[in-house]
């Protein structure tokens, strides 16, 4: 995601740690099986060491039984995006998908730690909710809903209990993830963080939690069988009125720089730093006391036969393509397994056409097809991605390491050179909106998430450290 222009800070970051050195709470988390599978939480304990060997979990360019994912490094340095599809997440009918967009000097480390640990924490939180309900003997909201569609009261109660458990599990898992980042012994997230858009598909239920400005949409057929785009998550940026109000109540400041009046940022109360271009994120602890939170916006949706696919992507895609354009590109892809790749390549072309003097952002895309089917093709065809895809896959091997001292391989490309007089902003931002039912504007250029690191003088007490 965004980079930092200023390099002066009292926050000394050490990210030479390995992802396996996470705290015990991260290593001792496992699956929460459904009753019909007759599995218990303790039956499926999995550690971060075991994640790479799981057969139904993919985090680099490729495809699964019902999805395809693709990521391409931008022109801002190290790739800070991460993505995941985890099929058979709890049982055969449950799939977990997520896209994570890091920012700051160690955003790439944060994004990958979140990618690996958050799904496990979500399972742990769900298991905790189920255990508490079982111990209390309560039947959730049973008796509060009257059946009106021929369904039994028991069925409605079970469905409502399921939604209630996920609604509680998402914020609990996000809170635990942020706490672990804060307490990590070898990773300083003071000025680094990550967005997160996570989706759990359980049968016909879709549960979603998101922070930051990555986005999820759905392609669905309308009444005349034409494809339409449905936005599933909200772009949680500082100029969203309810977000700005919370930040200001916490003494944080929200304003735009003079040379980019359309881009609202979050600033410390006593210094014009760091200029975070989102209202919620993992990490970014320099702003956590001033209104930036890691509480996800949770939503639930019941899928229908008209719903075709879901696309989750980092803002490198949404900055140049509209929801409708994304749905059109994915639905018209010659093969489902190539949809994510084609979408990223389309975004790359739009960056060159629309903003030739701007640095292209990293792009990560997850396409989940809701009918659970993937087209058939030979292994050779599957691997015949573009040269950029092959190089990105090689980079993916390095991505698995959380060694912040090591740079990832760069893609072969022509760089856009900016003059020294140009500012480190990348075109227009997004405009503010008064409507609470916020939809992020599409077709705008990418801006840095952080314009500078906080600097604290010796005269001023460092109240944040």
Automatic annotation (TrEMBL):
Family, per entry? Belongs to the PP2C family.
Report the EC number(s), separated by commas if there are several: 3.1.3.16
Listed GO molecular functions? Answer: metal ion binding; protein serine/threonine phosphatase activity
Write down the chemical reaction(s) this protein catalyses. O-phospho-L-threonyl-[protein] + H2O = L-threonyl-[protein] + phosphate; O-phospho-L-seryl-[protein] + H2O = L-seryl-[protein] + phosphate
| Residue span, PPM-type phosphatase domain | 66-370
Bias (Basic and acidic residues) ranges: 148-157
Keywords attached to this Swiss-Prot or TrEMBL record, sorted alphabetically, are: Hydrolase, Magnesium, Manganese, Metal-binding, Protein phosphatase
Q: Which cofactor does it need?
A: Mn(2+); Mg(2+)
Q: Which domain of life does the protein's organism represent?
A: Eukaryota
Entry's PROSITE patterns? PPM_2 (PS51746)
Coiled coil, from the record: none
Q: Which Gene3D superfamilies does the record match to this protein? A: PPM-type phosphatase domain (3.60.40.10)
Enumerate the residue ranges of region (Disordered). 1-23, 131-157
Q: Which InterPro entries match?
A: PP2C, PPM-type-like_dom_sf, PPM-type_phosphatase-like_dom
Q: What is this protein called?
A: protein-serine/threonine phosphatase
């Amino acid at each position: 995601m965004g980079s930092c222009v200023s390099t002066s800070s009292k926050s000394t970051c050490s990210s030479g740690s390995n992802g396996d050195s996470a705290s015990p709470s991260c290593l001792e988390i496992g699956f929460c099986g459904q009753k019909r599978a007759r599995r218990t939480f303790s039956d499926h304990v999995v550690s971060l060491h075991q994640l790479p060997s799981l057969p139904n979990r993919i985090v680099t360019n490729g495809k699964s039984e019902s999805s395809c994912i693709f990521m391409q490094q931008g022109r801002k340095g190290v790739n800070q995006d991460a993505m995941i599809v985890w099929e058979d997440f709890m049982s055969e009918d449950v799939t977990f998908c997520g896209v994570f967009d890091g920012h700051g000097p160690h955003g790439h480390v944060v994004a990958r730690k979140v990618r690996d640990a958050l799904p496990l924490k979500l399972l742990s939180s769900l298991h905790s909710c189920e255990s508490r309900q079982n111990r209390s003997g309560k039947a959730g909201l049973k008796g509060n809903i009257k059946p009106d569609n021929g369904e039994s009261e028991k069925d409605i109660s079970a469905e409502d209990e399921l939604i209630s458990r996920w609604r509680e599990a998402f914020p609990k898992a996000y809170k635990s993830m942020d706490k672990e980042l804060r307490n990590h012994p070898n990773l300083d997230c003071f000025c680094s963080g990550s967005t997160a858009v996570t989706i759990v598909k359980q049968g016909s239920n879709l549960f979603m939690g998101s922070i930051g400005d990555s986005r999820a949409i759905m392609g669905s057929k309308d009444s005349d069988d034409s494809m339409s785009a449905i936005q599933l998550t909200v772009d949680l940026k500082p100029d969203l009125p309810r977000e700005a109000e919370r930040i200001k109540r916490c003494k944080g400041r929200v304003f735009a720089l003079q040379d980019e009046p359309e881009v609202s940022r979050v600033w410390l109360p006593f210094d014009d730093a760091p200029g975070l271009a989102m209202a919620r994120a993992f990490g970014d602890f320099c702003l956590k006391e001033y209104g930036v939170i890691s509480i996800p916006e949770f939503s639930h949706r019941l899928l229908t036969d008209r719903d075709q696919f879901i696309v989750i992507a980092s803002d490198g895609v949404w900055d140049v393509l509209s929801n409708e354009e994304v749905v059109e590109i994915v639905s018209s892809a010659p093969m489902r397994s190539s949809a994510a790749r084609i979408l990223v390549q389309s975004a790359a072309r739009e960056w060159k056409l629309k903003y030739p003097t701007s640095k292209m952002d990293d792009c990560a895309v997850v396409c989940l097809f809701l009918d659970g089917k993937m087209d058939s093709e030979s292994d050779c065809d599957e691997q015949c991605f573009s040269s950029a895809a092959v190089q990105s896959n090689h980079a993916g091997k390095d991505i698995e390491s959380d060694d912040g001292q090591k740079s990832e391989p760069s893609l072969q490309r022509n760089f856009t050179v900016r003059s020294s007089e140009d500012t480190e902003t990348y075109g227009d931002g997004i405009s503010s909106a008064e409507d609470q039912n916020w939809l992020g504007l599409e077709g705008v250029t990418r801006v840095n998430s952080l314009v500078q690191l906080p600097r604290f003088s010796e005269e001023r007490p460092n109240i944040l450290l």
